[in-house]
Specification:
The chain is α+β, with helices and mostly antiparallel strands. The chain contains 20 helices and 22 strands. The strands form 5 sheets. Strands 2, 3, 4, 5, 6 and 7 form a 6-stranded antiparallel sheet that branches.
């Protein structure tokens, strides 16, 4: 091993300005510390696309690497080092990846152009029901464009997907089961009966018969809605989780891993061991030069955003658009990396917590939803990694809650008395039936093994208010929607029906809180679509409002928040999570101006 010191000016090929060497040294040291203790397994491939020139990290699945790898793999090594005898195919084999997948990965690597990055087309399945994500990037360097890679543990996300499928199966089974021992009806059969009865109602001409038939159908609809609430409460009591919450995203398959392969007990100690001053210039000590240089090159070329905070008041961005920036406060860091306006408070809270425990979350960065991992680092510091969101959380419970609300829309039949009434509600009822069938079909798809998520579609903003208008008509509330035509005509990519469900839920809750007037204002502010729903109902007490904020922040429902007897209390959380699936989406609650009422503000970035 070459033990001669390597000056930083020689490393960059030019004389450094005063103070520039110190900043560069901190960034290089930050890269070394970060990758040495990284959760993903990372490395650089040789020109053959398989041999490993350098590796580091692997804390996420060091158990598999140790148990199934040859002696050359040592994730607890004192420093990252070249492991030339090892190959990427060997590592994937140790993780339990199928041979045909390994061959396909080799083909993908061979097709990578310089400067191109790719996340392998799907998650890799490995031993012990573990899942991995492989990210590849071919450098533009003169040496031939070496490919660097990172392998990430995704088992926690996959467990969320498994929960989604299981909840879907439970819901469908419950919908096909009898209401009770004494009531053999089930929801699927009842839906078919309601649909047939509606067809008879639409063809009826005698007002007396219309009133009788409408009331009969409405009674069945109420029974169905009550049954849906029972199913939802049973799922909640069972403790199952219907979507991707923060808990789901934490990788429960691996215990928290501490600092295990970095020299020194703190930032200053590591710096003293690795850096030297030779002839007035900062230099890397020879025995560490290759490791530090390799780490810095990897991080600098990474498609991920790496951040390290060696101590309070120093926050280094090691890669990404802001590479090389050093910030003096977390709020400055959050603004500097372009965290979305609605995500900033959550991002500041997240980063502030990393000195105490590891965590994962999702927030918007530079106009895209991103997955964010973080954990404690040297001393009192921490480190974090930001990557494109690989998964799109879908809350099955929220979808089911929306299904229940669709049934509630049909309770308008209670006020249908004449042929004229039938003509007025006919199209709306047919639309509701169609949406119920679509929602059930989506649940059936998500209940299948290896199910994906529902596809996003384009919806006009004007269509989002249809359900709210129906509730207004049913209840006699005054709904005043104020929005410019260009806003109502906007086409937004989203999960079909979820925003209509969200606004319907807010309006229905307002009705149950005693509201008589609801004002909805929609407009575009900068890059954000903002919708405010303000009612004149009873509002929330300060205690209940604080509990609602906690529910939204933690992603855990609370039946106490239900606005109506027998409710699940899930509607508000479901609404917040639906909005949160948009880029930088946020739902906020606050008292309405004056003595009464509640204001719910929805905001998300539009592209």
């Amino acid at each position: 091993m070459d033990t001669s010191n390597l000056s930083l000016s020689a490393l960059v090929g030019r004389k450094l300005f005063a103070g520039e060497d110190d900043a560069l040294a901190r960034l290089m040291l930050g890269a070394y510390v970060l990758v040495a203790d990284a959760r993903p397994f990372i490395g650089v491939l040789g020109k053959d696309g398989d041999s490993l020139l350098w590796t580091a990290g692997g804390a996420e699945f060091c158990d598999l690497l140790h148990a199934h790898a040859p002696r050359e793999i040592d994730t607890a090594q004192v420093q990252p080092r070249s492991v030339a005898p090892l190959r990427l195919s060997d590592v994937l084999n140790r993780l339990g990846v199928a041979p045909e997948e390994i061959d396909d990965i080799a083909d993908v690597i061979g097709l990578l152009d310089p400067g191109s990055a790719v996340s392998y087309r799907h998650l890799l399945r490995g031993r012990e029901q573990r899942s991995f994500r492989l990210v590849l990037f071919r450098r533009r360097d003169i040496a031939g464009g070496h490919v660097q890679f990172s392998i990430h543990e995704m088992t926690g996300f996959e467990r969320g997907n498994a929960k989604m499928r299981e909840i879907s199966r439970q819901i469908l089974a419950a919908m096909e089961s009898p209401f009770s021992k004494n009531d053999p009806r089930n929801l699927i059969a009842l839906l078919n009966k309601v649909e047939n009865d509606l067809n008879d109602l639409f063809s009826a001409t005698d007002d007396r018969q219309i009133a009788i038939r409408a009331n009969h159908i409405a009674t069945g609809v109420s029974a169905a809605a009550n049954r849906l609430v029972d199913i939802l409460n049973a799922i909640d009591t069972d403790g199952s989780d219907g979507g991707h919450t923060g808990k789901d995203r934490v990788n429960e398959s691996c215990p928290p891993s501490g600092i295990h392969c970095v020299l020194g007990n703190d930032w200053q100690g590591t710096q003293d061991l690795i850096l030297a001053r030779v002839g007035g210039e900062l230099a890397l000590k020879g025995e560490y030069a290759h490791a530090v240089r390799s780490a810095h090159e990897f991080v600098s070329n990474s498609t991920l955003i790496f951040i390290i905070a060696p101590c309070e008041g120093e926050y280094y961005v090691l890669s990404g658009p802001q590479r090389g920036e050093i910030y003096s406060s977390i709020p400055d860091l959050v603004r500097g990396i372009e965290v979305g306006v609605n995500s900033r408070h959550g991002a500041e809270t997240f980063f502030s917590s990393l000195g105490q425990h590891e965590n994962q979350t999702r927030f918007a960065v530079a106009g895209e939803n991103m997955e964010v991992w973080g954990r404690p680092g040297l001393g009192m510091g921490w480190q974090a990694m930001i990557a494109d969101a690989y998964t799109q959380g879908v809350d099955v419970r929220a979808m089911f809650h929306g299904l229940k609300n669709l049934w509630l829309h049909m309770q308008v039949l209670h006020v249908v008395k004449t042929r004229a009434d039938v003509q007025e509600v006919r199209d709306a009822l047919l639309g509701v039936i169609q949406k119920i069938h679509r929602r059930i079909a989506e649940l059936k798809v998500m209940a299948q093994p290896n199910a994906g998520f529902p596809r996003k579609i384009r919806e006009r903003v004007a269509g989002w208010f249809q359900g709210a208008r129906r509730i207004s008509d049913e209840t006699g509330m005054v709904l005043d929607v104020r929005a410019p035509e260009d806003v109502l005509n906007m086409n937004i990519v989203c999960y079909g029906g979820q925003m209509e469900d969200t606004l319907s839920e807010l309006v229905r809750n307002a009705h149950h809180s005693g509201a008589r007037h609801i004002f909805v204002n929609a407009g575009v502010k900068g890059r954000y679509l903002e919708i405010e729903v303000v009612d004149d109902g009873r509002g929330m007490s300060p205690e209940k409002l604080a509990q609602a904020h906690k529910v939204i922040e933690e992603g855990r429902f609370d039946p106490v928040l239900s606005a109506r007897p027998g409710g699940s209390g899930y509607g508000l959380l479901g609404a917040a999570q639906s909005v949160g699936r948009f880029v930088d989406g946020q739902l906020r609650l606050e008292p309405a101006a004056g003595r009464r009422g509640l204001k719910v503000a929805l905001s998300f970035r539009v592209t």
